[in-house]
Design goal:
Layout lengths: L8 E2 L5 E2 L47 H4 L6
Antiparallel strand pairs: 1-2
């Protein structure tokens, strides 16, 4: 006997789908489904945090016309 805790999605037509671990062999299995009193709203994810790491430009450059076009059309 094995206990698997997972989330089940119940569709408006009454069908339900769930995902089990990959090591569960295919075929029929005896299962017990216990539903909570209310449908749970998914908990909000915490915001992503990025570390402040100054990388700067890969190569020092300017945006002058002469630099962009290698000296212009001479």
């Amino acid at each position: 006997m094995r206990t698997i805790e997972t989330t089940v999605r119940v569709e408006p037509d009454g069908t339900a789908s769930l995902r089990v671990p990959a090591d569960v062999p295919p075929g029929e299995h005896r299962a017990v489904l216990v539903l909570g009193d209310e449908a749970e709203a998914p908990s909000p994810r915490p915001p992503l945090e990025f570390s402040a790491y100054p990388v700067g430009l890969a190569v020092p450059t300017t945006f002058r016309r002469e630099d962009l076009y290698h000296g212009g059309g001479s």
